[in-house]
């Protein structure tokens, strides 16, 4: 028997992920793709079709699909047309060597039995997560969580600005005098700015929010009215700036469709931890070593 490790990335979910960093594992994505229904243009595959026999034991399409998913990392560099053959070859090798191990009595070894039991429990852990967590999440739940996260975010103001960066205060003052007489800001930026990215676009910085610019620059830009420019040069670590504000707006949240997968990950996380909490509460867990017990409690305290 091949003990499934395809859901292994979820096994350490309690210690390995943070609230905003959780993402669906590539292994899970590959697994989902492998088990997706055939499209109208693909010939349906009979999962019970026999692809090989080994010492009288049948290997079916389902076994081959499982092998491809289990060994996907090993086959990642192979062309698609070779992966199926490589997976079948690997499945055959596993069968024949497993038979050899049994003939030698290795399946009776206590260390092996402990590992096998652990792998089986790990696979069952993944199975219950898939059936009771992943399998029960609805689009309505994901949308509700999205709206909750958006509502919890404080409003963020953004500024759309241009700037002209020069080396000395005197240069900046001379440019400001030209602006005061009606010179075009974008043209002066193209001619004089030392910011390489601004030479071809009139010093345009696009929209930026709090913390995206150095403090002196950000403070000066926030103080300007839309359409106005700094009457005094602004000094930063990069040199001297003349700043013009083109627009101000409240930052819009990302569209639901663009962040649906990330939001779904948060729903998965919460449901997983709720399930673990209930299961742990119903279980009798004893850790005799006090230091180890405290370390476990500290690690679980961040959940």
Automatic annotation (TrEMBL):
Q: Gene3D superfamilies, per this entry?
A: 1.10.8.1040, 3.10.50.40
Query: Mind listing the UniProt keywords for this protein, alphabetically?
Result: Isomerase, Rotamase, Signal
Please report the stretch or stretches of sequence annotated as the PpiC domain: 156-247
Enzyme Commission code(s) on record:
5.2.1.8
Swiss-Prot/TrEMBL catalytic activity: [protein]-peptidylproline (omega=180) = [protein]-peptidylproline (omega=0)
Q: What class does this enzyme belong to in the EC scheme?
A: isomerase
Q: Which residues form a coiled coil?
A: none
Q: Which Pfam families match?
A: Rotamase_3
Signal peptide extent:
1-29
Molecular function GO terms recorded? peptidyl-prolyl cis-trans isomerase activity
Family named by the database record: Belongs to the PpiC/parvulin rotamase family.
Name of the molecule in the record: Parvulin-like PPIase
Lineage, highest ranks first: Bacteria, Pseudomonadati, Pseudomonadota, Alphaproteobacteria, Hyphomicrobiales
């Amino acid at each position: 028997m091949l003990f499934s490790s395809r859901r292994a990335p979820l096994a350490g979910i309690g210690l390995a992920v943070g609230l905003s960093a959780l993402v669906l594992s590539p292994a899970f994505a590959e697994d989902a793709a492998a088990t997706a229904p055939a499209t109208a243009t693909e010939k349906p595959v009979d999962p019970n079709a026999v692809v090989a026999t080994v010492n009288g034991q049948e290997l079916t399409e389902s076994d081959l699909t499982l092998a491809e998913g289990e060994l996907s990392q090993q086959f990642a560099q192979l062309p698609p047309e070779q992966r199926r053959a490589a997976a079948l070859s690997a499945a055959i090798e596993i069968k024949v060597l497993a038979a050899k191990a049994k003939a030698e009595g290795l399946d009776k070894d206590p260390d092996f039995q402990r590992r096998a039991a652990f792998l089986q429990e790990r696979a069952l852990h993944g199975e219950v997560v898939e059936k009771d967590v992943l399998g029960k999440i609805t689009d309505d739940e994901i949308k509700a969580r999205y709206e909750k996260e958006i509502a919890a975010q404080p409003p963020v103001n953004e500024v759309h600005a241009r700037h002209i960066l020069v080396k000395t205060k005197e240069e900046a003052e001379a440019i400001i005098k030209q602006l005061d007489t009606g010179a075009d800001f974008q043209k002066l930026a193209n001619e004089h700015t030392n910011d390489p990215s601004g030479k071809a676009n009139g010093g345009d910085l696009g929209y930026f929010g709090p913390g995206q610019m150095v403090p002196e620059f950000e403070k000066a830009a926030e103080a300007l009215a839309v359409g106005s420019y700094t009457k005094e040069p602004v000094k930063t670590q990069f040199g001297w700036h003349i700043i013009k504000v083109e627009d101000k707006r409240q930052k819009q949240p990302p569209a639901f469709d663009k962040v649906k997968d990330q939001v779904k990950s948060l729903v998965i996380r919460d449901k997983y931890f709720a399930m673990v909490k209930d299961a742990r509460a119903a279980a009798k867990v004893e850790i005799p070593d006090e230091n180890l017990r405290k370390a476990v409690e500290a690690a679980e305290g961040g959940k």
